[in-house]
Design goal:
By secondary structure, this protein is an alpha/beta fold. Helix content is 33%, strand content 16%. It has ten helices and eleven strands. The longest helix has 18 residues.
């Protein structure tokens, strides 16, 4: 089931906050209208066993991690262009028939939101993105704390700052069903804190997830994990991520369908949570003209993941690269990996 046919109120074809010709007064009024808008009436996505449901019918999430081409997540929010985003999503929605976009919200955005502050400007841009997505019958998963590195233990001032950030941000959307849920962190296992003090990192994720659920009880909570087993690993108090999330996001980059089915089959049976796969695409492009990295192979991988959806073995599939990036070396300090060579890299757009 997709989201078509359900009553939503946000169907305006224009996005006044981004009109170049609008004056300051017009822009302020447009912001005010968006800020006062009521949530749509389609209903919240819920969980039933290993299913995601909408109005008690099974839902399959089919979508992608979104930024405009050659924009990093921070660039998108800093150099906000709603008309560009609307045109981009319209094209992608028409071509792919997707029903969800996954968007990372940096903990610090230059010129928009200092570290740990959910400013009015950020909230307005998030609402505008929701309006654009809803006009195309799509919903949104937001990743929080993007770029944050600390993972403080309980009682530290930085933990207080993290919780204040959640209290500033999430109540603005708590009654908005255009939001599917909140991803507490993108691939936490890649961070140094996880490698040197894993229980501390898990403890922080559990605390943030628990507080986010209290602030937005109608939304689903998740963590986009690099390693499936991480969800079942305990912190100091024997608390586990799996006990505080509503569904699991698992990275399956470069895995064949058989490997993915084996991975899912080896997960513990309890607790039963919906599984959403991400990063399942393989790169393609001029530097990658090998048997493994071709557009034909990429299309085959997409088809394989969609059949897993159709067979109800997973609840969703999210692509992480929707554009072939510009060929070339990655930015300074970034490892020259196969992924970067094949998919390209996010160069800051020229202004």
């Amino acid at each position: 089931m997709l989201f078509g046919g359900l009553p939503h109120r946000y169907n305006s074809p224009t996005y006044p906050c981004a009109r170049a010709a609008a004056g300051p007064a017009d822009q302020l009024e447009a912001h005010r209208v968006l800020a006062q808008s009521e949530p749509s009436a389609g209903g919240f996505i819920a969980v039933q066993g290993r299913r995601l449901t909408l109005q008690r019918e099974r839902v399959h999430l089919k979508g992608f991690f979104y930024t405009p081409k050659n924009y990093s997540p921070s660039d998108m929010w800093e150099y906000w262009d709603a008309n560009l985003i609307a045109q981009d999503l319209q094209r992608l929605h028409t071509a792919m028939g997707i029903n969800v976009i996954w968007v990372r919200v940096p903990y610090e955005i230059s010129g928009v939101a200092p570290a740990g502050y959910a400013t009015e400007e950020l909230v307005l841009r998030m609402r505008e993105l929701l309006q654009i997505a809803d006009s195309l019958n799509m919903r949104v998963i937001f990743t929080l704390f993007d770029g944050y590195r600390d993972f403080p233990p309980p009682g530290k001032q930085s933990e207080t700052d993290n919780l204040t950030y959640l209290r500033q941000l999430l109540p603005n959307f708590a009654n908005d069903d255009r939001v599917i849920g909140w991803d507490m962190y993108y691939r936490p296992e890649t961070q140094r804190v996880w490698r040197i003090d894993q229980p501390r990192a898990i403890s922080w994720l559990v605390r943030m997830a628990n507080n986010a659920k209290a602030l937005a009880p109608n939304h689903l909570i998740t963590v986009s994990l690099n390693n499936a087993r991480a969800a079942w690993q305990p912190d100091f108090d024997k608390l586990r991520i799996i006990d505080f999330v509503d569904f699991i996001m698992l990275r399956v980059n470069d895995k064949q369908r058989e490997e993915i089915e084996d991975l899912i089959g080896r997960l513990p049976e309890e607790p039963r949570k919906p599984i959403v796969l991400y990063d399942f695409e393989w790169g393609s492009g001029p530097p990658c003209r090998t048997l493994r990295y071709t557009e034909e192979q990429q299309a085959f991988m997409h088809y394989s993941m969609l059949t897993l959806l159709e067979e109800n073995k997973v609840a969703g599939a999210l692509i992480s690269a929707i554009h072939d990036g510009d060929a070339g070396r990655p930015p300074p300090g970034m490892a020259l990996t196969t992924t970067w060579v094949c998919i390209g890299w996010m160069a800051a757009p020229s202004r």
